[in-house]
Design a protein that fits this description.
By secondary structure, this protein is an alpha/beta fold. It has eight helices and seven strands, in the order αβαβαββαβαβαβαα.
């Protein structure tokens, strides 16, 4: 015998209408992002802890990496907030290429740093994530927390599954990342959940100039512009 279904908890029509209208807000975030960032090639996205102090070794190293990248012609893209994000924008702002901040509205408000030549503001993490990936020629990942791990895992997944083009993924500070990489190798690879070749997507660097050199080495035999096939992949990102 069929049970009577209780629809009393079904969302009210007004709530459904609000959710439908959110689609236009999401569209607006994508459109503004595409329009503002389409001319910043080549670019490097830099990630790291919002809690890093301005005198910390990681902050100072991120600032120097960003400065060298900017002087080499790369736009520097960060999350727009404090800590490593501020360091990246600060170093990029000192250089000759644009310093870009992809700011996010959070319950505990994130204060945008003051070193952004291009400043975008997002309500949704997923549209912001697309902007980090779509225009990046490389990812530089400094020590950080859950948000940094999220962005690191995101680019690894997209490249591993062929949903975006292969770009350098550079982890800075071996002492911070070595345990995670060892766990991936000794546990994930050993259990067959990833392949050993997947770890070849990642490289460790210590010094700022080493980071820049690694990015140029990746593109030594090709240009920074995506190929036609890569453009098609990025179109479906």
């Amino acid at each position: 015998m069929a049970k009577n279904k209780d629809y009393s908890e079904r969302p009210q029509q007004s709530q459904l209408s609000r959710e439908s209208w959110k689609v236009f807000q999401i569209m607006a975030e994508f459109v503004e992002g595409f329009e503002q960032l389409s001319g910043i090639w080549p670019a490097v996205s830099i990630f790291g802890s919002a809690r890093a102090g301005t005198e910390s070794a990681d902050y100072l190293k991120a600032e120097q990496i960003a400065y060298l990248l900017s002087e080499s012609g790369f736009a520097v893209v960060s999350g727009g907030g404090p800590g490593i994000m501020e360091a990246a924008n600060k170093g990029g702002h000192r250089g000759r290429a644009p310093s870009v901040g992809l700011n996010i509205e959070l319950p505990k408000e994130q204060q945008p740093n003051s070193y952004q030549d291009i400043s975008l503001h997002f309500k949704h993490f997923f549209s912001r994530k697309v902007m980090f990936v779509k225009y990046a020629s490389a990812y530089v990942v400094m020590p950080g927390g859950f948000g940094t791990l999220d962005e690191f895992a995101e680019i690894l997944t997209l490249i591993q599954t062929g949903k975006t083009r292969r770009i350098p993924i550079i982890l800075v500070n071996a002492g911070f990342w070595r345990g995670l990489l060892d766990w991936m190798r000794n546990t994930m690879c050993a259990s067959g959940t990833i392949s050993a070749s997947d770890l070849e997507l990642v490289q460790l660097c210590e010094e700022p100039q080493e980071v820049v050199d690694a990015i140029f080495a990746h593109y030594e035999s090709r240009g920074f512009e995506p190929s036609f096939s890569e453009q098609e992949i990025l179109l479906e990102l």
